[in-house]
Write a structure and sequence with these properties.
- It contains 15 helices and 16 strands.
- The protein is an alpha+beta fold and 480 residues long.
- The protein has three domains: 289 residues, no CATH class; 114 residues, no CATH class; 59 residues, Arc Repressor Mutant, subunit A (Orthogonal Bundle).
- A nine-stranded mixed sheet has the order 2-6-7-10-1-11-12-13-14. The protein has a three-stranded antiparallel sheet with strand order 5-4-15, with no helix packed on it. It has a two-stranded antiparallel ribbon with strand order 3-16.
- α3 links the parallel β12 and β13.
Length: 480
């Protein structure tokens, strides 16, 4: 987009809370069950039923509100949001309108200038229930409906229109998801619908105070899709304005295959939903004691952990950002760092070898058969010369794959590093005899030939030779 215009973006994020049962009934929220088997008269909206609010959903919502530095309502009130859609059996959704649970919060993201940060306002966070799911099959003249998801507890987080670029939107979502995962209130699995995002975007001439006409974008199933859709939409809107046209307030869908947004419908206003207080749920007071009980059990959040890692372990900012990207990775690093001499070496192993295995296996830390004590031991054995770095990687792979102990793997595979001078002397002498050209190169001043010879020692010893001692011994023999 040209410098003539400024983009204004607000995001609406729906987080499916990880409760075992639904928001207002006892039906299971487990994903992947046979369609329409996790339903009851309450979530189906049959006549005469009464909803009962899920206490755990309330606690999870309070957790996130505290993490986002929100103000909390003293009274919780639910409302009916009325609209008809095939996957909404009651023809209304239990939500919150004029008194959201939390409001006036913020999410801090990296600014465009490295090392600086910017706060994006959070307008509100309110509780509501999810709708069902329509399943379309182009081969059939009808659609299926699965109501298992109906009534699942959601927390909707609405940002202020403070976001100015698609990249900032991406950062905002990344930070929000990280906070939610640290709190362990949702798995944030976008493929399963646990985290969904709608984007509101408008453009205006730079320096203008008045906002432009807002367009809502739906069908965004990844953070990349959010960024790509916003990039497309700001260019589309600029072209319309430059041609003398006007922007219609509407809802558009993102087509990831064609990389375009497509008009879906004109945007409804709040009054179109005919909100009114939910008569079957009595408003209740949010007691300060309940909030403080939740606050006391809050984990250390990413921003605080980041500062502590920088101060306590003296790591660089890029390494810390990798280590705190997931709570389990941060915990693994810290458990290992406390049992080795140099935290930086622990960081290198976690962000290097461990994360390589996580990516290869497409899993999280819990999916690896790795104890922090075993990784600490492997690092210590490299440092004291018991095993080589190459052997250590092999030992780690076995720990992860089979859950075996490092000592057992070393014994079984004979990976103990050779530091005995007599044995090393024999191997070094053999390498010198078999690599006459490299020996000559070294004696003629080509110092990199020594690295090649050390490599040959490692190869001959099948990775068991101590490279430091081998290098010293090679130099001594070659210079004598």
């Amino acid at each position: 987009m040209s410098n003539k215009y400024e983009t204004v973006i607000g995001l609406e994020v729906h987080v499916q809370l990880a409760t075992k049962t639904k928001a207002f009934c006892g039906c299971s929220t487990k994903f992947g069950a046979v369609p329409n088997t996790q339903v009851c008269p309450v979530c189906l909206g049959l006549p005469g039923v009464l909803p009962v609010f899920n206490k755990k959903a309330f606690e999870y919502a309070i957790k996130l509100a505290i993490a986002l530095d929100c103000d909390l309502q003293s009274i919780v009130k639910f409302d009916r949001k009325n609209y008809y859609y095939p996957d909404l059996p009651k023809n209304y959704q239990i939500s919150q309108y004029d008194m959201p649970l939390a409001y006036n919060g913020k999410i801090v993201i990296d600014a465009e200038r490295e090392g600086e940060f910017r706060a994006i306002g959070v307008t509100r966070a309110h509780l509501e229930e999810d709708a069902g799911k329509l399943i379309h099959d182009e081969r059939l003249p009808f659609s299926y409906i699965d109501l298992n998801r109906t009534g699942t507890p959601l927390l909707e987080i609405v940002s202020e229109p403070d976001i100015r670029t698609p990249d900032e939107a991406y950062k905002y979502l990344t930070v929000l998801k990280q906070i939610i995962e640290y709190l362990e209130i949702s798995d944030c699995n976008m493929e399963e619908g646990s985290l969904r995002c709608d984007a509101n975007v408008s453009i205006r001439k730079k320096g203008a105070a008045e906002l432009g006409s807002k367009v809502e974008i739906k069908n965004l199933n990844s953070f990349k899709a959010v960024r790509d859709a916003l990039f497309f939409e700001e260019v589309r809107q600029e072209e319309i304005l430059e041609d003398g046209g006007g922007i219609s307030q509407e809802t558009r869908l993102w087509d990831a295959d064609k990389n375009v947004t497509i008009s879906m419908r004109s945007k409804e206003a709040a009054h179109d939903y005919r909100y009114f207080p939910e008569p079957d749920l009595v408003p209740f007071e949010v007691k300060k004691g309940d909030i403080e009980a939740v606050r006391k059990n809050m984990p250390e959040l990413p921003a605080k952990k980041r500062k502590r890692f920088l101060d306590e372990y003296k790591l660089n900012a890029k390494d810390v950002d990798v280590l705190i990207s997931q709570r389990d990775i941060a915990n693994l690093f810290e458990s290992v760092a406390k049992n080795v001499q140099k935290p930086q070496i622990a960081a290198n192993w976690v962000k290097g070898e461990v994360m390589k295995h996580l990516k290869e296996k497409n899993t999280d830390v819990k999916g690896l058969k790795l104890n922090p004590e075993d990784l600490s031991k492997i690092i210590t054995m490299v440092e004291n010369g018991t095993v080589s770095g190459l052997s250590a990687k092999e030992i780690l792979a076995d720990c992860i794959e089979n859950g075996d102990k490092p000592d057992d793997i070393i014994e079984k595979k004979g990976l103990k590093q050779v530091s005995d001078e007599d044995e090393l002397s024999r191997i070094v002498s053999e390498v010198i005899d078999n690599n006459v050209k490299s020996v000559t190169d070294f004696k003629n001043g080509k110092t990199n030939a020594l690295s090649f010879l050390v490599g040959q020692v490692m190869k001959t010893s099948k990775g068991k030779a101590n490279p430091k001692i081998a290098g010293e011994m090679l130099q001594k023999m070659l210079l004598s």
